[in-house]
Amino acid sequence: MRFHVLTLFPELIENTFGTSITGRGLESGKLALHTVNIRDYADNRHHKVDDSPYGGGAGLVMQAEPVYRAWESVRRECAGAPRVIYVTPQGHTFRQELARELAREEELIFLCGHYEGIDERVLKEIVTDYISIGDYVLTGGELAALVMMDAIARLVPGVLHNQESAEFESFHNSLLEYPQYSRPETWHEKQVPRELLSGNHKEIEDWRLEQAKKRTRERRPDLYEEYERRQACERQLMKQKLLHTDMLESLRADRGRILHFEEESVALADCEGIFYVTAKDPEAGEKILEKISNNKQKPALLVLHQEFLVERARKLLGPLACERRFPYVYTQKHPLPRCYGAEIRPLTELEDQEREDVAKLVQESGCGQRKKEAFLACFRKGRVYGAFVEGRLRGFMGQNQAGDLDFLYVGELWRRRGIGRALETAWVNQLLGQGARPFVWVEEGEESSRLFQESLGLCRAKSPVWILAKP
Ligand code: ADE
After folding, report:
1. Helix (H, G, I), strand (E, B) or coil at 258
2. Which of 152, 218, 224, 328 is most solvent-facing, going by the fewest CB within 10 Å?
């Protein structure tokens, strides 16, 4: 993740972000920081970037042109068009959910204001997100940007060491974190709770969950209400748990936000741009799809769980390509026996030979342009795994934004040697280790895929899902 910060005080950002865990992230290359001094883009000898506001009033306003030129200098360095976050008390409030969403970006630009703000015209041209860290006013945007950058940075894979990345932390599942204790066992005549000394994992887990619930109820009743709604929503989805594995996984991984929940109908907006819908009847479906079509964020992918939703979605959201697929889910708790057909490892930092092998295999697979782009996005996010035999890449697979296994491919000359099985086994076992539920969407009529998934022990849902995307 690369942070670009447009600021009048680059040293404040560099000194703070370069310290402690974020500093370590910079050293390891998991994070990168690029500060731009807006003053360097002033068009006068005195490097003045502010002036009095039209219409009168106190204070000074940062002028449009230096901000615009500073932004342009960053844009030229970026591959895509990164989101530009203007930190301002007039934005919507930063929450953990947004930190998770932003941590999935490859680059972010923060714009820090000072004085009485920034000329509205440049904000209109470049800003994509207006975000505040709370209902109070700071002297400038730098501290607010640092707060957000810190919260985002710790969610970037590899920034926290394993022992630091708590599985259960505040806001996970809409609960606050449970109380923590360390040595000594007795301090000021206060004992560590008996359950934590029991050595019984189940008892410890149950105690922690109860404490987290109690604490949230007492300190943040608003959040507790969210927790209860979420629990009810999960119970509803569990009634057809194979069909709804995608939605349950989106909630479990804290990617999904409940957009709608009423009786037996649920819609989730996943921070990866996927919208999931399951509806009791066409009438309920219509209501949800209207909500989605009026939503500011438009779906990159729409996953529908009933056929009656498909035509309605097309009417409301325009022409969409549709694939009908059956969910296959690994429902067991125990890992699959390890396969020795190939060495499986993530395809991240590739050597030239490996890069060539990947390109060759992608070419050989004959996939279309859209699939290729999805594969590349998956690859950039470090979600592609390679199967190596005697040091050469012979197959790969990736995990899609929805969490499903995709892009499984083994070179033609290397089939029937258990390489596909080794890839999927490694993936299933890795997900189980993370507490996730592995699933795959198999196209109807793909007999060999069906047999392959069943041979690994994945169970098919009774009905399919319809996956819609812009053609
Ligand atoms: N700049 C000044 N106050 C701020 C706040 N509360 N949040 C974000 N940016 C700010």
Report:
1. strand
2. 218
pLDDT at res. 371: 84
Report pLDDT for 49. 97
What distance in angstroms lies between residue 255's CA and the mean position of ligand 1's atoms? 26
220-226: average pLDDT: 97
For residue 233, the CA-to-ligand 1 centroid distance in Å is 34
Please tell me the distance between residue 103's alpha carbon and the centre of ligand 1 in angstroms: 20
Per-residue pLDDT tens over the stretch 369-414: 888 888 888 888 888 999 999 999 999 999 998 999 999 999 999 9
Separation of alpha carbons 155 and 129, rounded Å: 19
Which residue puts its alpha carbon closest to atom 7 of ligand 1? 132
Q: Which of 135, 137, 148 has most ligand 1 atoms within 8 Å of CB, for mutation? A: 137
Q: State the sign of the Cα–Cα–Cα–Cα dihedral 453, 457, 462, 466.
A: negative
Burial of 345 (0-12, 13-18, 19+ CB in 10 A): exposed
Question: CA separation (Å) from 65 to 39, 47, 73, 118, 157?
Answer: 11, 12, 12, 10, 36
Residues contacting ligand 1 via CB (< 6 Å): 87-89, 132-134, 136-138, 141, 144
Report which of 2, 62, 1 is spatially closest to residue 37, judged by C-alpha positions.
62
Cβ burial, residue 334 (10 Å; 0-12/13-18/19+): exposed
Rounded to an integer, what distance in angstroms lies between the CA atom of residue 330 and that of residue 323?
A: 22
| CA 135 to ligand 1: nearest atom | 6
- Other beta carbons within 10 angstroms of residue 244's beta carbon come to 25
Structure tokens at 360: 């060759």
- Mean residue pLDDT of the chain comes to 94
Pocket perturbation via mutation, ligand 1, pick of 138, 146, 149 by most ligand atoms within 8 A of CB: 138
The closest residue, in CA terms, to atom 2 on ligand 1 is 138
- Closest CA to ligand 1's atom 4: 89
Q: For residue 132, how far is its CA from the centre of ligand 1 (angstroms)?
A: 5
pLDDT tens column, 160-207 = 987 666 556 778 889 999 999 999 999 999 999 999 999 999 999 999
The two three-digit tokens of residue 208, written as one number: 């922690």
Residue closest via CA to ligand 1's atom 10 equals 88
Measured from the CA of 88, which atom of ligand 1 is nearest? 9
Residue with tokens 């920081």: 33
How far apart are the CA of 78 and the centre of ligand 1, in A?
26
Which uninterrupted H or E stretch holds 112? strand 107-112
| Mean pLDDT computed over 117-136 | 98
What are the beta bridge partners of residue 304? Answer: 277, 466
pLDDT at 166: 54
- In the prediction, which pLDDT does 163 show? 61
Beta pairing partners, 396: 386, 409
